[in-house]
Request: fold
Amino acid sequence: MEIYRFGKKIILTEQELFLAYEEQESIYDMENVRENMGTYMKEEQYLKLKENQNYIKEAAFLLRTYLDKNNMTYEYAIAEAIKDAAESVKTEEERQDD
Reply:
C-alpha cells in the first residue's frame, strides 16, 4: 500500500499495514473507554480512574478481547471491560498496600 507523508511516498508492507491498523484500533478502544467510563462507574470510582492510563489500557484490552474472542455485544463488552479493569486495578492497589 502506498501512502504519502509530508509529500513523500511511502510503501507499507502487509505487516506494517496490519500493525498500523492494530495501533489505530487500540487508540479507538481507549477513547471509547474514556467516553463510557462515567456511564458504567460510580462517580467516585470514575474520578479516581479517569486519568489512570494503566486502567484505560487494561479496559481497552479487555474490550477488544470481549468483542473479538467472546463475541459479546458492544454494549455488554464495554460495560464488562470497564468493570473488570476497575476490579483489576483495585486488586493491584490492595497488593501494593500489603
Observations:
- The chain has one domain: 2-97.
- Residues 55 and 74 are 19 Å apart (CA to CA).
- The mean pLDDT is 91.
